[in-house]
## 1
Amino acid sequence: MFNTFGSLFRLTSFGESHGPGIGGVIDGCPAGIEVDEGFIQAELDKRKPNNAFAGAAGTTRNEADKIKILSGVYEGRTTGTPFAFFIENTNQKSQDYSKLADSYRPGHADRGYDMKYGFRDPRGGGRSSGRETIARVVGGALAQLYLKKIGIEIFAYTEAIDGIYAKDFGEISLSSCGERQFFAPNVEVVNHWQKRIEEVRKDLDTLGGVVCIEAHGVPAGLGEPVFQKLDACLSYALMGVGAVKAVEIGDGTAVAASRGSKNNDGLQYDDEGNLCYASNHAGGIEGGISNGQPIIARAYVKPIPSVAKEQKTVSKQGENIVLSIGGRHDICAIPRIVPVLKAMAAITLMDMVLLQKRMENNGIS
Amino acid sequence: MFNTFGSLFRLTSFGESHGPGIGGVIDGCPAGIEVDEGFIQAELDKRKPNNAFAGAAGTTRNEADKIKILSGVYEGRTTGTPFAFFIENTNQKSQDYSKLADSYRPGHADRGYDMKYGFRDPRGGGRSSGRETIARVVGGALAQLYLKKIGIEIFAYTEAIDGIYAKDFGEISLSSCGERQFFAPNVEVVNHWQKRIEEVRKDLDTLGGVVCIEAHGVPAGLGEPVFQKLDACLSYALMGVGAVKAVEIGDGTAVAASRGSKNNDGLQYDDEGNLCYASNHAGGIEGGISNGQPIIARAYVKPIPSVAKEQKTVSKQGENIVLSIGGRHDICAIPRIVPVLKAMAAITLMDMVLLQKRMENNGIS
Amino acid sequence: MFNTFGSLFRLTSFGESHGPGIGGVIDGCPAGIEVDEGFIQAELDKRKPNNAFAGAAGTTRNEADKIKILSGVYEGRTTGTPFAFFIENTNQKSQDYSKLADSYRPGHADRGYDMKYGFRDPRGGGRSSGRETIARVVGGALAQLYLKKIGIEIFAYTEAIDGIYAKDFGEISLSSCGERQFFAPNVEVVNHWQKRIEEVRKDLDTLGGVVCIEAHGVPAGLGEPVFQKLDACLSYALMGVGAVKAVEIGDGTAVAASRGSKNNDGLQYDDEGNLCYASNHAGGIEGGISNGQPIIARAYVKPIPSVAKEQKTVSKQGENIVLSIGGRHDICAIPRIVPVLKAMAAITLMDMVLLQKRMENNGIS
Amino acid sequence: MFNTFGSLFRLTSFGESHGPGIGGVIDGCPAGIEVDEGFIQAELDKRKPNNAFAGAAGTTRNEADKIKILSGVYEGRTTGTPFAFFIENTNQKSQDYSKLADSYRPGHADRGYDMKYGFRDPRGGGRSSGRETIARVVGGALAQLYLKKIGIEIFAYTEAIDGIYAKDFGEISLSSCGERQFFAPNVEVVNHWQKRIEEVRKDLDTLGGVVCIEAHGVPAGLGEPVFQKLDACLSYALMGVGAVKAVEIGDGTAVAASRGSKNNDGLQYDDEGNLCYASNHAGGIEGGISNGQPIIARAYVKPIPSVAKEQKTVSKQGENIVLSIGGRHDICAIPRIVPVLKAMAAITLMDMVLLQKRMENNGIS
C-alpha cells in the first residue's frame, strides 16, 4: 500500500504537516530490542528544522519533534507487538502558503497533484511534506538499534554540496561524520560549504549535493536473487526520498566505461588466511546479494525547487505568471536529508536481515 | 515475495536455466487486451542469445525461446484471469559449468550464494541466470500491448558502450532504435561500437554501457506521493536487473551540481494556449509523480564479470587460485539487456496506471 | 502481516490492554467520507465494558474509550491519506492478574502462548486482550459511514443466548436491534436472557450464544471467484474474533441435509417486472459472489472460559492445580462481541466494494 | 491478489476448465522436500472426475489429470525456487454448456457474474470451475509432504451424506479413510450412502454432506494472536471451497448452548507425568493458537445446484423460464471435495508452520 514501507519490518506512516502530527506503526519488529529513546530522539533532532547540523542551509520553522511511544514497548524493550509512535506538530503556519494555492511551482508536484487528485492541499504539502519523513527517521532509528546489536553499523555523510567534494579538502572519515555540521566527513570542507551556501542564498537561489551511505558489518548473503535484490531495494528506498534523482551502488555510473577485468573485485587469502577483496567497485553487492564488504550507496540530491528568484510558471487558472517563493524554506535539502536517507537504508537492511533469517529457518534438516 | 514483481499487475516468474524451461503468471491483467503474439515473440527474440541485434557482443548459446500461452486468453484477448506462459529450454549444456563449481568467480554472486544458501548450483546460475529475464520480457510485452492502447509508448536504446556515446556520432532518434543493431539510436555509432567490442573480445575482456529508457504519452498524475513514487518504483525495477549499478531519472547525477533556478523546468502557455515546459531536467517526474512530460531514465550497466583473462580469486575449499572463464558468455550485457530494461519499465508503468485507475474510482461522488 | 486486516481498506491495529492505549491506522480509506465522530463513538460505546447494552453480562472495568483522531481528516472529511486514531487506556489494574501468571487457564491460549513465545504477559492478555477489538470497531464504523452512503446497511443482533432463541418469544425485527439491551431483535426475549444470565452467574459459570449479521443493500457482484470469495472473507473476519467457534452463511450447517431442488433459491420476475428470489437459503452469496439478496451470516460464540467455578488445570511449573477465576470478567461475550462482529463484517464488505470498483476500472473500452 | 492463496507458502493458481489446462506456482516452498510424485498424483486421482472413490456420486467427464512439474525440483528435491506445475485439459466438451448461456441457473453464480463482469463464460465455469481446484490439490500435496516430515498428518473423511452420519453405523476410524469409497470413516456406512445417492439421482435431485478434517501432530503455538489466527485462516481456507456454507472448529455451533465449566478442556498431568486434556471441545485451537491437541474442523457442503428436476428461473433476456440441467454433473460434491478440503487445510497449516518458524528466528538472543 501507498503508506507502508518494508515487507517483514513494515513501517506504516501517517499524519500531515498541518494536522495534529506525524506518526507511524512498525509491524514485524522483533521482540527484545532495547529501546534507547535518547538515540531515536537524537536521530530525529538531526532531521529537525533549524538544527545544529544545518548551518546556513536551514529553514526557520521550529518544531520540538518529541517522540511519544504509543505501544509495543514493555520495561524498555520491544515486545514483538506493533511499535506505534506519534510526534505532535506544534508550529503550523498554514497562512504562509495561501498565496501559492493557485500557482504551479516549478520543480514541485503541484500540477501532478492537481492532475492526480483534482485538488491540492497548498498548506505545506500535506502528506508529501518533508515532515512525513519523521516517521521514516523513527523507523530507521529502531532498525539501527537492532542492527547494531548484530554488528551492522550505518554511516551517512555529505560527499559534496554544489559540486564541492569533501575529499578534495581532507581525508574522508566516518568516525564522527554523524556529529559534524552538514554531516561532513572531514572538518576542512565545512567552511567551504558554509560559504557557498551563503553566497547562493544571497543570489536567491538553492543548491544540491551528494550523500553517501555506508553499511559496515553486513554479512554476506543478504538480498534475494530475483526480485528483492539488495541493490534494487536500496535503490527503491533512496530514490523514494524527495529530491533524489540518481542512485549509485559502488562505482555506480563509472562502471559503464570500465572493463570486466578492472571492475571485478578480486578475492585472495592473505598471509594470515583472511579473505580479502582487492577493491570494492561493487559496493558490497554482487548479483543482488551482499558479499561481506561494506555496502556503499550514493544519492544525488537536486537543489530545493522553491527559489526566491523570479521564475516563469502558470497558474491553476491557466495564466502565465511570474513567481518568487519566500517562506521558511531550506536552501539545500542537505544536511536534513542525510538522517532520512540513513533511516531508509537502515529499514531496508533490517528487512533483508529478517528475510534472510526467515529463509534460514525454512529447510528440512 | 521473492519471485513476484508488481502490485496490481503482478508477474510471478518461475523456472531455471537448466530445468524444463522458464515461465510466469501475470495476475491482475486487465481483460480485453488483444494478445499480439507476434509482438511478444519479437520482444523475446531481441533478448535471445545470439540474436540479430547483438552484433559482436553475443553468446553462442542457441535457444528457440518460443512462447506457449497456458491460460488467460480467449479468442485472442485477455480474459482478466491469470495469464500464464512457458518457454522451453532447448539447449542446456550444464557440463560447460562443471569446472566452475568450486571457484568463486570475481564479480559474481558465487560467494554470496554459498553464504546465503550453504550451496550453489553452478549450472549457469539456476534462477539467477539471465534466462529468468525471459519471464520479465513477456510480462513487459503484455504491459506494452495495454499501454499502447492508452497512448503510452516505451522506447529503450543504447546510449553508450564503453564510454562511446551515440550522440557524439549523430542525432538521437527514437523512431527505429528498437530495430537497429545494438538498439543504437542512430546508424553512425554502430560501427564504432562493433569495432570496440571486437577489440575488447580479442583482449579477453568485457565491457559495459548505458541504456536510456523513455516513455512518451504518460499522463500527469502517475505515482504515489509517499512510498510508491514513480521514480522509486522505476529505480527498483531497473536496478533489479542484473549488472545495473546506477539509475538516473532525468538529469540524474548532474542535478547535484545544478542550482534551483536552472534545474526547475519552467512552464508557460505558448501563443496557441498549449502548456509547454521549457526543459525536462526532471525526466518527467516531480515529487514522485509524473508531470506529463516524457519519462526519462538511465541504467548504467557494468561489464560482464566473466572475463577470459586470468583473474585471481579463491576456491570454495579456501585456496588462492587463478581463473580464466571461457564458455558461451556475452562480452557485453548490452544489447540483450535493453529489451529487459524496457520490459521492467513497462511493467512498472502498467502497475502505476492501474493504481491510478483504482484511486480515481474510490471517491464518494 | 499479523496486525493488519483487509487488502484495499487496510486496518493496522496497535496497542496493548495495559499500555498507553489502543489505536489503529486505516490505509486505503477513500477521500470524502464525512467523519461522523458521534457515530464512531456510539459504536465504541456499545463495545465498552459495563455499557448500557450489557445488562447482567458485563464486567466492572470502566473505560472512557474516547476516540482521538490523529490524521487523515480535514474539515470533517477523510482526505484519502491514512486515517489514524488512538484511544487511551485509563483504567488498568494489572495487579488483578498477578495470581494467574503461573496458571494455564482452561479454555485460554495461556499454554499456546508459552509454547509460541516462550513467555506470556499475564496482564489481561496484552495484544490478545479484548481491548484490541477497539481498533476493529473504529475501522468498522468508518467503513459503515462509507457503506451507508452507497446504500449498504449492516445489522447485527443476538439470535440466542445459552440456547434461548429470540425468535421463540417474538418476531425478529432489525429496526432497533442496535439500540436494545443485548442487541436483542425483539423486546420479549430480553427478560428471559437477563434471568438466565443471572442464574448462571450465581452458579459461578458462564454462557455463550449466537450472533446474526445481516447486510442489506449489497449489490450483486461483490467477491472474487477463486480465492477472495465473499463468504470466505466474511468467514475469516468473523472466525477471527475471539470466542467464535463456527460461522455459517445463509442456512449454514442445515444445507448438508437439504436437497438441490429445495436449497436452490429460484428467481422469477413478478407481475411488475421486479426480479424476486423465492427464498434466501444461500444467505445472499452464490459461488463466492453476492447475488443482490441480503447477506446473512451467523457466528457461534463460546462461553467465556474464565469461570469462577473451580477447575482442574496445571501450572507453568508442571503441577496439577485447582483454579477459580474471579476478577472483572464478563459472564458472556455477548452482547459486547456484537459491535465487533458487525465491524468485521463492515470492513470486509468495504474491502470487497473497493476491490470491485478497482476491477470495473481496469478494462480497455 | 485474487488467484493467490497463502502468505509464506504461496500458491498462485491459473488456468480455465476449457483452456489448455490448469496449473500453479508455489513460491516460498522450502528447499529439500522429497517430491514424491506418486503421492501428488494419488491426491489428484482422488479429486478426478469419475474416480474410484466417487461411487454413484460422480460425473462421466474423464480426464487424465497427469501432473507435469515445470520448475523448482532438482534431483527429486525442491530447491526453494518456485515450484510450478501444469495439468493438461484433455476432455473439454464446451458444446454441453451452450444451451445454458442465457439462463441464470438457480444456486449458481451466473447472475452474480453477469453483474460483476458484464459477461459470463458459460463453458463450464471458466476459472470458477471445479477444475481450478486441481491446483489446490497439488499445492496441498506438496505441503503434506513437508508436514509429514515434521510429524503432522492430515486426515479428511466424509462424516455424513444427506443427514446419514457414519458414526451411526460403526466406529469412526481415521486409519484408512483416505482409501475407502466416499472417504468413509468406516465400512458400514458405505452402502447406505450409495443407496441414498442412487435414490436421489433417480429423483433427479442432488444432495449434500459434512466433511471432517483432522490434523494430528500439530505442535502447540501455531497461529497468530490478532489477525492470522489459526481458526480464522482455516475457516477462510475451507469456506473458500465452492459449495461450503458453514465451518466449525471443534464443537462448533454446539458451543453456543454450552457452559464455560463444561466447554473448557481441562488439563492435568497423568500418573506418568504426561500432560493430558480431558476433552477436545476446542478442536485444538484456543485464542486462535494451536494447543497441541488434534485440530478438528468441519465443512458443511451444500447439494450440487445443477439438478435435473425442473426449476423456475429467469433468462438473461429478462424472461421467466423453466430449466432442467442435464450434462456431466456430479450428484454430490462429496467425495470429490474431500481431497480439496484436505489440501486447503494442509496449505494453511504449512503457512502457519513457516510463519511460526520465521518468528522464532527473529529475536535478539
## 2
Amino acid sequence: MARFLKKKEASLGLPPGAAVFIGEQKVSETRIKSMRYSPTELEESEVDLTAPASTTPPEEGVEWTDITGLHDPERVKSICTRFNLHPLTIEDILHTGQRPKMEEFDHYLYFVLKMLHYDQENKVIRSEQLSIILGDSFVLTFQEQPGDTFAPVRERIRKKRGRIRNSGSDYLAYALLDTVVDNYIASIERLGEEIEDLENEIITDPEREVLEKINLYKREINYLRKTSRPAREFILQLSRLDNDLVRDSSRPFVKDLLDLSTQSVEIIETYRDVLSDYLDIYNTGVNNRLNDIMRVLTIFSAIFIPLTFIAGIYGTNFEYLPELHYRYSYFIFWGVLLVIAAIMLRFFRKRNWL
Amino acid sequence: MARFLKKKEASLGLPPGAAVFIGEQKVSETRIKSMRYSPTELEESEVDLTAPASTTPPEEGVEWTDITGLHDPERVKSICTRFNLHPLTIEDILHTGQRPKMEEFDHYLYFVLKMLHYDQENKVIRSEQLSIILGDSFVLTFQEQPGDTFAPVRERIRKKRGRIRNSGSDYLAYALLDTVVDNYIASIERLGEEIEDLENEIITDPEREVLEKINLYKREINYLRKTSRPAREFILQLSRLDNDLVRDSSRPFVKDLLDLSTQSVEIIETYRDVLSDYLDIYNTGVNNRLNDIMRVLTIFSAIFIPLTFIAGIYGTNFEYLPELHYRYSYFIFWGVLLVIAAIMLRFFRKRNWL
Amino acid sequence: MARFLKKKEASLGLPPGAAVFIGEQKVSETRIKSMRYSPTELEESEVDLTAPASTTPPEEGVEWTDITGLHDPERVKSICTRFNLHPLTIEDILHTGQRPKMEEFDHYLYFVLKMLHYDQENKVIRSEQLSIILGDSFVLTFQEQPGDTFAPVRERIRKKRGRIRNSGSDYLAYALLDTVVDNYIASIERLGEEIEDLENEIITDPEREVLEKINLYKREINYLRKTSRPAREFILQLSRLDNDLVRDSSRPFVKDLLDLSTQSVEIIETYRDVLSDYLDIYNTGVNNRLNDIMRVLTIFSAIFIPLTFIAGIYGTNFEYLPELHYRYSYFIFWGVLLVIAAIMLRFFRKRNWL
Amino acid sequence: MARFLKKKEASLGLPPGAAVFIGEQKVSETRIKSMRYSPTELEESEVDLTAPASTTPPEEGVEWTDITGLHDPERVKSICTRFNLHPLTIEDILHTGQRPKMEEFDHYLYFVLKMLHYDQENKVIRSEQLSIILGDSFVLTFQEQPGDTFAPVRERIRKKRGRIRNSGSDYLAYALLDTVVDNYIASIERLGEEIEDLENEIITDPEREVLEKINLYKREINYLRKTSRPAREFILQLSRLDNDLVRDSSRPFVKDLLDLSTQSVEIIETYRDVLSDYLDIYNTGVNNRLNDIMRVLTIFSAIFIPLTFIAGIYGTNFEYLPELHYRYSYFIFWGVLLVIAAIMLRFFRKRNWL
Amino acid sequence: MARFLKKKEASLGLPPGAAVFIGEQKVSETRIKSMRYSPTELEESEVDLTAPASTTPPEEGVEWTDITGLHDPERVKSICTRFNLHPLTIEDILHTGQRPKMEEFDHYLYFVLKMLHYDQENKVIRSEQLSIILGDSFVLTFQEQPGDTFAPVRERIRKKRGRIRNSGSDYLAYALLDTVVDNYIASIERLGEEIEDLENEIITDPEREVLEKINLYKREINYLRKTSRPAREFILQLSRLDNDLVRDSSRPFVKDLLDLSTQSVEIIETYRDVLSDYLDIYNTGVNNRLNDIMRVLTIFSAIFIPLTFIAGIYGTNFEYLPELHYRYSYFIFWGVLLVIAAIMLRFFRKRNWL
C-alpha cells in the first residue's frame, strides 16, 4: 500500500464535512478518559460509553478529554458536537491522512499532527494521527490507538509537578505538543544512532545488506521529514498567533517548542545528507572492490598468458624445430619464462598494482 | 509530440483575445448541461444547441452551466459573450495549453486548471483542461470531454446533501475545485502505490524493465508536478483574495482546499525523491552484479590459468626434459596442481570473494 | 568563443554611457521603418538614412520606429538623441551582451531582451538583442538584423485586427513583447519535441551519438534558461509597475504575458530535469550493457578454461601417465568434459546469467 | 552514539523547566570565576563553592561570572536563581544538546551556542555548550569544561586593552561571542587546509585512504554546518534586536560579528561543495584506473590468445597434418605469429590504447 | 595553504579594532597617489611618505587618495585617522581576508571587495583586497599591490572624458566599482572561453588531463563565486541605500552596476552547471570507453577460447583417439574451427557488438 498517502479514494465525491471514518481500524473500542483540574482540585473519570455525554465544559479549571479509537464516527461526532466543533474539524479528525496543520476557529484552535514511534524491531517508523482541540477551558485529544505517550503529562497533573496545575488549557495543549515533539526527537535519535552505526560497515565491508539498510533508512527519514516539517510549520504559525486562547505566559514555552521542532527538522535534513553521502561512499567502495578484482585477474592473466603461449610453441609437433634438440633447451626455456614473469611483475609494481 | 507543451505555433501572430481553438478535438459535439438551484428549487436542463442561448443569469439562487467540448469556437464564444466575459478569458478557455491560474475580472473570477486521470493500463496520466468561471450568481465550467468527475457534485445538489443548496456560487466553485484536487490526490495515490511496489524488485532483481518503469514513473511524476504546483499556487492566491465573490463563510473551505493541494504537492516531491533514490539503488545494484560476475570470472581464471600453464610446460617436446621420465612425475604433477589450486582458493577466501 | 558572454573587454576602461557598438556586425546597412497610426489614420515610411531625422513624435496616435542594424553608433545615437534618451540607454542598445531587463526613466521605459530562433538544422538557438523604448506616444525598437518576427504585428496594425489601432503605445509594446515571448515558447516547443524523441533511443540503444545529443540539448536549454529567466523577471516587474506609461486597460494583457513567460521558464526547468534524467538513464544503460558484455565473457571463460586445462593435462608427455593407455580413456575424457560444462551451465542458469 | 543529537530520552516526560543535567559529565568540579570591573576598578575572585553565594550584581560597572562544569544541577540552579533567571533558561543551560539560539527575557538576553575546537590529532571537531546571560550590569557564562578560550578577553580586561573596560556588559558579551566565532573560523581554517591538501592525492593517487578522509571531512563539515548556521541566525537576530540591553555604540561590533559568522557559514558551504567535487573526481579517478587495468588485460589477452590458439593447432597429434613436415614450417609459423602480433599492436595503437 | 580563507589565527584574542596587518606582504613600500579635481581644476601629487600628512580634505571638488601597500599598519592608521575613520574600518582595511561588504558610518561609506585578475599562464584567479572609503568630498582607496586597474579612471579625470569631472565623489566611487566589476566580467569571460573550449575534448577524447582541467576550473569558478556573490549583494544594498552620500543623479549608474554584477553572478552559476555537466559527460565517456575495451576483450576471448580448447583436445596423447588417424581429420578440424568462429561472429554482430 502507498505509505506516503492514506487511502483517499473512499472519500471521493463526499461533501466536505462528512463525518466518515477514513483509515485503518486499530482498536476495537472507543475509550474516553477525562480529567478536570484546577490548582486545588482534580477529578478523573473514565466516561461510560453507553450513557449520554451530558457533561458541559467546566466554568473554572481545565477539562481534558482524551478519546482513543476513531472508527465509530457517530460516537466521535456526538463528542464533537457537545463542544460545538465545525464540521470540517470533525471530518479532519476522522480522516486519518491529514497533513499536520493548525486551524483557528471562533472558540477553539484545532491541531492535527502525527505521533511517531520508532519500531526498532522492524526498523520502521509507526505513526498515528493525533487531533488536539484547544478551547478556553477544555482540551480534547483524539488518538487512533491507546498508548502511554501522555502518561507523564497525566502524572504531572496528578503530582502537581511543574506549573501545569496552575496554568490554563493553553499550557496543557503546549505540554501535549511538547510530549509529541519530544517523541519525534527520540525517534530520530534512535534511528540516527543506527544510521551512524552503519558508517564503519560501509567503508570496511560494503556488502549488499548495507545497501538495503541505507535504502530502508532513507525511506524512514523521508517519512519523518514529511511528517515533521509541516509540524514545525504550524508551531511557527502558533508562535506568531494573535489569539486570546494562547496566553502571554505561555509564549516562552511555545518558542521553546519551536526551537525543538526546528532542531528536529534540521537533524532530519542532516541525516538525509548523511545517507546520501553513505550511498556515494558505498558506490565508491563497490567500484574500488571491482578494481581490486580486476587487478588480480589482470595480473594473473598478463603473467601466465604469455608463458602459456611460449610453452605452447614448444608443444608443437613440427618435424624440424631446432630448439627441441639442444641439451640445455629445457633449462633455457625455464630461464626465459622466469625472466618474462619477473619483467611483468616489475611492470605491475611500477604501476602500483601490487 | 512534445508532451509538456501544447502546440503553440498555431497561435503565433494572432492578436491576443482571438477566439481560435488550439488543442486536440476530443469530442464530436459540444454539449451543455445546466442546473439552476436555490435552497428550495432545482431546475435541470440540457440546452438545445441549435436554439439561441437567450436565458440570462438568475436573480436568486445559483446557475451552473457545464459546457463539454471546445472545438467549436463560435459556440463557446456566444456562451461567453452572454456572460460578458473578457476576450482574454475566451482565448484562454479555447487554448488548451494554459498554465493553471486564477484571474480576477470585474464581475467574475476565472480559474483554469487540469483535470487528471491516471490511466493504469498504459501507466500514463491523462489530462484535460477545465475552466471555471465564478460569477455572483452563476458558475460556468468548460471541459474538453465528457466524464463523470462532477457527478458527485450534481448528486449532492439533487439530494440536498451537505450545505451546497444553501450556499452561493462560491461554494459550488469550491466544491468543483475540491473534486478536482481530490482527483489529483487519487491519481498520485494510484501512481504512488505502483512506485512503492517497485522497491522490492529493485533490490532483489535489478532487471532492465525496472529501469524502464522508473523512467516512466519519473516522467509521469514530472508531469503531475508541472500540473499541480501552479494549481496549489492559485489556490493559495484564492485563499488570500479580497473579493466579494468569495464569501466569508467559504473561507474555511478554501483553507481546507489549500491544505489538500499543499499535501498533493508535497507527496509528489516525496515520490520524486523516492524515484531518484530508486535509480541510485538500481545503479548500485547493477554495479554489485557486475562485481559478482567479475568475481566469478577472476576466480576461474586465476585458478586455472596457472594450472594450464604448468600442464603446458610438460606438454613441450624438449628432447631432454628430465621430469618426464621419473616414475612418479605424473602424480607429483597432480599434487603440485592441487596445492596451487588450494593456495588460490585460500587467497580468495581471505579476500572474502568466496 | 565564450557563448554565454559577449565580448566585454572592448569596453574596459570606457566611461559609462559611451556610445560604442559592442557585438558582431550582422547586417551591412542600418534600416529604419516607421509607422504612425491612430484609430483612423495610418502612415508608413522607410526613412531615408542620408537625410537628417527631423520629424518629432506625433501629438496624437502612436509612432513606431523600428531600427535594424546597430553597427553604426553615430546613426543610432542621433536617433536616440531625437527621442531624448539617457546616455546609459544608448550604451545598452549598442552593447549587445545585455542581460534582459527593464529600466524606468523620466519619460520612457526601456526594455532589453533577446529574440530567440531555434535553428533546427544546426540544433542551436540563435539569439539577437532587441531594445524596446516605450514613450507616451512612441515606441522605438532596435534589432540587430532584419527578420519577420514583427510582421504579424504590422499586419494587425494595417488590417485593424484586434484592439491595436484603438490602443496606445503601451499596447503596441505589449504586442511586441508578446510576439517575442510567443517565439520563446515556440523555440522551446521545437527543442522539446526533439528532446522527447530522444527517450526511446536512450533505453533501447544507448549509442554514443545519444550522449552527444543530450549534451547538445543541455547546452541549448542552459542558454534558453539564461535568457528567459531574466525576461520573466522584468515582465513581473512590469506587471507591478506603477507608471502612467502603462495604462490600466493594458494590465490584464501584461498579466497574460507574465503567465506565458512563467510557463516558458517552468517548461525549460522541466526539460532540464528531463535531460538530467536522460543522462542518468543513459549511464545506467551503458552499465547494463557492460554487464551483458562481461556476462558473455565470463560464461565463455568459466566454461572453457577448466576444459582446456583438462585437455592440457592429457597433452603432457609424462612417460608414465596411466590414463593415456586405457582403451576408453578418450571417451571417458569427453564425458568428464561434458559433465563439467553441464555443471557450469547450471551454475550460470541458477544465477540468472543465461 | 548518535553524534548529531545529544541524548534526549532522559528528559522524556519531564515537565519543562525541570533543572536536570543532561549530557556527559566532563569535569569533576564546578568552578566559578568572577570579575567585577569598571573603567577605574577591577576585582577578581574565585568564589568558594561551599559558602552561600550571597553577592548581588554590582550597581555600577560590569560583573562577569564564569561557571565551569554543569553536572551539579543544584549548584547551577542556585546561581541562576540569584540572577532571577527563567526556569526555561535554567533547563536550557543544563541540557547540553541545545540548538544555538538567542532568547529575550524581561531583564536579560540568553545566548546558547557551541564552542568548537578542532582536534587535529583525531581529525574531529570537539564541541562544548556555552550559555551566555547578558544582563544590564552582569554577564554569566556557563561552560562544560575549563579551557583558555576566554583568556584573551580576561587579559584585555586586566590590561585595559581596547575599549572593554570603558564599555558595558553588552560589549563584554560581544567580545565573548566574537572570541567564539573567531574560534569557528580558526577551526574551519585548520580543517580547510587539510581538505585542500587532499586535492593532489585525489588526482595522482586515488587510494582507499583518500576515500576515508573525504568521508571523515564530510562528517566534520556537516557537523560544523549544523553548529554554525543557527549561530549565524541568532547573530542576525541580535543585529536587528531592539532592546535596551544592546547599546547603540555596540551595533557596529554586532554587524562586524555578523559578517564574520556569515563568512564562516559561506566557507563551510564552499568546503562542502569542494568535498563533493572531490568525491566525484575520486570516483572518476577510480574509473580511469579501472580502464587502465582493463586495457592492459585486453591488450595481453587479445595478442596472446590467438597466438596460443595457433600454437595449439600445431600441437595436435593428427596423423596427417601436412604443415608439420615441411622444412621451414617452424620459421613460417614464427613469422605468422609475429605478423599477427604486429597487426594487433597496430590495431591498439590506432585505438589510442597504447 | 587554505585558499578559501586567509590566516585568521594571528588575530585570535586581539581586541576588535586592533590595527594589525593580516595578510601576505606583496610590495616593499607603501605608495600614495593623490588627485584633487573640480570641474575646472586638477592637481595630482605623489605624497612624500616621510613628511607628515598634514593636508585636509578639500572644501570643493573631490580628493581621491589611492594607497598601495598595506603592510605598514602605522602608516595606514595615520592616513585613516586623518579622515577620521572608525577603528573597525581600519581593522578591516588591514585584515586582507574580508568578505566583500558595504558599511555605513556617520560621515562615510566603506566598501571592501576583491579585485580579480585571471592569470592565464597558471590558470588561476589572483585576487587582491580593495577598500574604498566614500566621503562627502573625498574617496580613499587601499590596494595591496600596484596595478593599472584604475588607470582608465585616472585618464578620464585627466582628459575630462564623460561626466566624471562634473560629478561628485559618489560618481568617482561608482566609476571605481564599475572598473572592478568590469574586471570580474573580463576574468569570467577568459575563464569561460577556456571552459567552453574543453567541450570538444571531453566527447572526442576523454583523457586524464581533461579531468584535471575540469577540476581546476571548478576550483576557480568556486573561488569566483565566493568572491562575486557578496559583491553583488552589497551593490544591491547600495542601490537601495538611503544616504546623502549617494546623490540621485548617480542612482541610474548604480542600477547599471547592479545589472552588471547580477550578470556576472549568473554567468558564474551557468559555468558551474556547465562544468558539472562536463564531469557527468566525461564519466559517461570513460564508461563508454571501458565498454569498448571490454567488448574487444570479450570478442577475442569468446572466439579463441573455444577454438583453443578444441585444439587442446587433439593435442592429448591418448593412445586410442580415433579422429587422429582419419585421413581428412585435420581439414575437418579446421572446418569445425571456422564454423565455430563464424557462429560466434554472427552472435556478436546480432548483439551489435561489432
